[in-house]
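Researcher: I need the complex structure. Ligand is uracil. Inputs:
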Amino acid sequence: MRLDRFLCETTDLTRSLAKKAMHRGEVSVDGEVITNPATQVDERHVVTWHGEPLALVGLRYVMLNKPAGVECSARRGLYPLVRELIDLPHPERLQTVGRLDVDTTGLVLLTDDGQWSHRVTSPKRRCGKVYRVTLAEPLEGQALERAIEGFAEGLLLEGEEKPTRPAELVMRSATEAELTLHEGKYHQVKRMFAAIGNHVTALHRESIGPLALGELAEGDWRELSADEIAAF
Ligand code: URA
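Model: Output:
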C-alpha cells in the first residue's frame, strides 16, 4: 500500500497531514527518511513516525454484552456509543454488525471486516438471532397459538412491503418469550409483538447463529476466536 495510506491506517493522521509529516522528514522506512507519499510499503517494512514504529491493525472481530443506555450508531448523539466500550486501537473503525435499540441489552458483534459483517446479516444465510422478550401482557391459550402461527407464517408490519420471514416463538412463562428471527428489520421484535396487541417491556439478544454470550458479563467484550470467525 502507499505510504500515506499506511500512515492513515496506523495513526490518527489524515491523508493530507500524513503527506505533510513526510515532507517534514518525520517518516522513515527501514531507517531511511522517505518524503514520497506514493512509496509502496507492506508489513515487512519497518515504518516509523518520529522514530516510533507503526504497526498495521489487522481486521478485528468482537462480541460485546451491550448494557442499556448505549447506542449502536456511528455518531455520538444522546448516548455513549458501543464502540467506546471496546478498548482496542482505532475503535472508531469498528462497525456494529446489525443494531440493537438503545434500551435493548445483549449480544452485539463489531468488526472492521465489511464482508464478514455482510455474511452475518444477510437474510439468505438464515443466521438465527435469539431474543429473550419480556411482555407487558401474558400471552397464553388461543392468542399464543395465533401468535406462534402468525410469526411462523410471517406478518406484514406497518410500512413494510414484504412480510417478515418465518420466526419461531417459544414461551418460557406467560410473559417471557424466546423469539428467533432470521433477519433484522427496524425495531422488528417490538413491532411484531405490537402487531399482535402486546408490548415489549424488556429485550435481550442471547445469540447470533452459533455465537452466544455465555459467561460474558454485561458491559464486557472479547475478541472472537478464529473458529468463531470462520463459523459464518
Ligand atoms: N428488535 C427490536 O425491536 N429491537 C432491537 O433492539 C432488536 C430487535
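Model: Summary of the prediction. Residues 100-101, 104, 187-190, 203 surround uracil (CB under 6 Å).
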